[in-house]
C-alpha cells in the first residue's frame, strides 16, 4: 500500500491511525494494513475519523503545553520530569537550577488528590493526577490530554472526584 500511495511509512501510519482508532483497519507490527470492517456509511467514517484526529491533536497540544510548563517551572525540575512519567519524587534534588538557587521548599505538602491517583471530571472524563505546583494541579485525562487547573477552583466547584 505504501508504494501505491507514494507515502513514507511514517506518513502512511499517521494517515491510517484515525481509521485504526475507530476500528476500520488494523496496523500490524510489520506495517501491513488489514481492513477489519467495511464501513456502510462513509460519512459516518469521515466524522468519526475527524473526531479521532481532533482528540489526537488535543493530546499533542497538551504535551507541548507540558514542555512549556517545564521550561517555566519554579519547582524542582527532576520532580517535574518524574511526575510527568508517573513517578513520585520528593524534592529537592539539589541538581537542577531551581534547587541550586534555593527556590524549592523542603517540606512536602498534603494534597487533596494524591499523585498518581485516578480522578474524574464531568466534561473531560477520567484522568491521572500527575503534579502539583503551588496552587495548580495537573491531570492527564485519558481523552483530552493534560489540563492544568487552579486548585481552589477545583475544590470550590467540586470539579474532580476520586475514582476507586
Largest beta sheet, briefly? 5 strands, antiparallel
Radius of gyration from the alpha-carbon trace, in angstroms: 20 Å
- Which bin fits the share of residues in helices? 40-55%
Class based on secondary structure composition and strand pairing = alpha+beta
Using the alpha-carbon principal axes, give the shape.
elongated
Give me the count of strands.
7
Instruction: Give the low-pLDDT segments.
Output: none
User: How would you state the average pLDDT, rounded?
Assistant: 84
Q: Please write the string of helix (H) and strand (E) elements.
A: HHEEHHHEEEEHE
Number of helices: 6
Ends distance = 45 Å
Biggest sheet: strand arrangement: 6-5-4-3-7
Percentage of β-strand residues: 15-25%
Amino acid at each position: 500500500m505504501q508504494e501505491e500511495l507514494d507515502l513514507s511509512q511514517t506518513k502512511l501510519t499517521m494517515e491510517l491511525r484515525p481509521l485504526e482508532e475507530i476500528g476500520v483497519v488494523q496496523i500490524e507490527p510489520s506495517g501491513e494494513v488489514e481492513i477489519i470492517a467495511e464501513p456502510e456509511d462513509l460519512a459516518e467514517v469521515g466524522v468519526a475519523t475527524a473526531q479521532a484526529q481532533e482528540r489526537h491533536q488535543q493530546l499533542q497540544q497538551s504535551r507541548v503545553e507540558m514542555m512549556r510548563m517545564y521550561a517555566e517551572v519554579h519547582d524542582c525540575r527532576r520532580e517535574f520530569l518524574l511526575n510527568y512519567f508517573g513517578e513520585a519524587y520528593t524534592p529537592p534534588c539539589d541538581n537542577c537550577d531551581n534547587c541550586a538557587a534555593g527556590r524549592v521548599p523542603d517540606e512536602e505538602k498534603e494534597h487533596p488528590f494524591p499523585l498518581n491517583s485516578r480522578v474524574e471530571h464531568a466534561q473531560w472524563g477520567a484522568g491521572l493526577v500527575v503534579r502539583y505546583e503551588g496552587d495548580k494541579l495537573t491531570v492527564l485525562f485519558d481523552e483530552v490530554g493534560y489540563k492544568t487547573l487552579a486548585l481552589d477552583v477545583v475544590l470550590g466547584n467540586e470539579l474532580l472526584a476520586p475514582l476507586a
